[in-house]
Every structure is written in structure tokens, then in C-alpha cells.
Amino acid sequence: MNQPLAGFAPAPVTARMENHGNHMLKVAMQTGNDLLARVGSMVAYEGFVQYEPNPPAVRQIARDWMTGEGAPLMKCSGDGLLYLADYGANVVVINLNGDAISVNATNLLAFDAHLTWGVERVKGLAKFAGQGLWNTKISGQGWVALTSRGKPIVVDCGGGEDETYVDPDALVAWSPNLKVKGKRSFKAQSLIGRGSGEAFQMAFSGQGIVVVQPSEDSTDRLRFRG
What we know:
The protein is mainly beta.
């Protein structure tokens, strides 16, 4: 191999999912351990990997996903190495150990097909965001990969009485056990939430984490509001 390119070769496989750099996901595929991934996210693969866009199980679970074009997921199966990416976004890999996470659909890259998941409306936000905000809740034992427009920050809400406020267009994921409510501040409208177009924030409280990206791109997020 040309010496300048040698540093970009994939590292030996050490886990089901892992990063190759900051912007690519490497998945070790095995027969019987299928993957659900964002349609169009495959950039390369080795071995024998098959793809089924919008499989029946996904259509049934995600029938409430208000995209106007169906659930943007495909089932990946087979043996080999699969590489996924989403237009150069940062990739964050999470190993759920019986835990659960709520993810904005636009930030969901891939997850193990055996995990329990479903699409649901975020409660308490209807009067602030039209009919509300949709999210995907994933739980169980397995792997999940998220995307972030830039290096994300993980905020620990700490379980105290103080609330953590996030612009909804910068929100990536959060612990589903957190309490969520909306807040609107007209006095700060021109200072807060450039992506939202108004000073509307989501307030989180309780024990858990919130993942926030540095980009506030509301173009895709609006598709997931009812």
C-alpha cells in the first residue's frame, strides 16, 4: 500500500460497531444478527451483505413516522464489514446495556435489528411545536449509532431540580426517563435558537443525559413534526 494512504486502512475489528475516524461507522456483520440502517448510508462493504429497503417490520412499526415518504430505514444482513456514513456528519456509537435512548429520527444512523424500538410523539410539546415532535425510542441489549452535525456535547442533567434547556433543532438524543416540557421566551427571541426561528426550548429534568450537536439545521427536523 502507498505509504501516505496506509494510515487510513481499517483497524482490526474489536466490536460489533465502532468508529473509523469521526465520520464513518464500521459494522461487523454476522448472519442472524441483522442491522437496521438509514437508507442511503452505505458507503462501502466487504464480504456478502444484502439490503432490503423499508422492510415490512419497519413499515408496521414506523407507520406514524410523519416524513411523507415512509420510514427511511433498510435492513442489512449477511457476513462481512459494512461502512456507513451520513454526508460527513460525526458518528457516535452507543452500546446499550439494557438501557434505552430517545433519538431524533434525523440523527439515527443504524441500530441492531433485535433491539426493541418504536416511533412516538414527545409529550408536552404540542402547543409549542405544532402537533409535537417525533422521536424514536430504542431499548435492550445491543448497539446504536447516531449522527451529529459537528462534535456533540453530552450534558448530564444530574437528577437535581435545575432544568437543562436545549434548542430542539440542536437536539440529538436524550434519556427517555427524563421529564420534558417546552418553554418560550419572547424577550430573548432574537438571541436564542437561531435554527428554531423563535425562542422555543425543550426543558429536561431528572436523572439522565441529553446529547446536543453544535449545528441547528431545522430543515429536516420539521419533516418529523406532525
